[in-house]
Amino acid sequence: MKTIHKYALKVSRELNRLTLREGFQVVRCEYVVPEKTVYLWVEEPLKVDIPERQYEFRVAFSGEPVPDHYVYRGTALDPFGPEAFHVFEAPAQQREQPYREPSFRPVIAA
């Protein structure tokens, strides 16, 4: 069996952390006007033997840069305003790697 859950997302540079069952699928993304909030509808399996884990999502405005490794999941439009909100998933394997400064070797002229 499976079901669909609805999750509210913050619109900010901060990541939204959701606990979801492995094998989930994002099925809808929408801006709900009365609540002025972006929502994500997620289809999840209901089997208790399927593990849950943390997933992180970022909501970005049009034209706002996001890291290359983020995966696009949907767009929500404000029907009464000019705003578009784009939802990206931050993949776990990329999220957990700390940023490292590039290493440079000095060029020594002879």
TrEMBL record:
Cite a single Pfam family from the UniProt record: DUF7352
Listed name of the protein: DUF7352 domain-containing protein
Where the record annotates domain DUF7352, the positions are 1-96
Source species, domain of life? Bacteria
